[in-house]
Backbone:
């Protein structure tokens, strides 16, 4: 029981630390705008809002379904959003502070974390 509590606390510490690092990486108003735009598109919130504006229950249902998918456990919404937001910030908003090296670094973290989680879950059994 104590071990589970320790894992739970460590998970939330890592989560909030990752969010803080994410906010620091965005670093400018362009970064925050790109993150909000990309998150709205990927999470389904944008589709839901469009359905609400146009009073279209079909779009609202699709948006809610996409959002429900991303709220499931082990879905990589935030890492994917971060990588795509950095690409959006660099090439669409033309922010020169974001380099291809940073984007590649974030992509490698995304794929390395996935492998680490798979290995860890295999070790637990």
Residues:
């Amino acid at each position: 029981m104590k071990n589970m509590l320790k894992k739970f606390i460590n998970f939330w510490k890592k989560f909030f630390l990752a969010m803080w690092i994410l906010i620091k990486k965005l670093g400018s108003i362009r970064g925050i705008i790109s993150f909000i735009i990309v998150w709205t598109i990927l999470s389904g919130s944008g589709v839901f809002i469009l359905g609400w504006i146009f009073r279209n229950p079909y779009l609202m249902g699709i948006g809610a379904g996409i959002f429900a998918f991303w709220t499931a456990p082990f879905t990589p919404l935030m890492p994917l959003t971060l990588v795509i937001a950095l690409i959006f910030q660099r090439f669409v908003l033309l922010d020169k502070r974001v380099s291809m090296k940073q984007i590649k670094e974030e992509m490698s973290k995304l794929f390395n974390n996935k492998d680490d989680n798979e290995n860890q879950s295999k070790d637990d059994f």
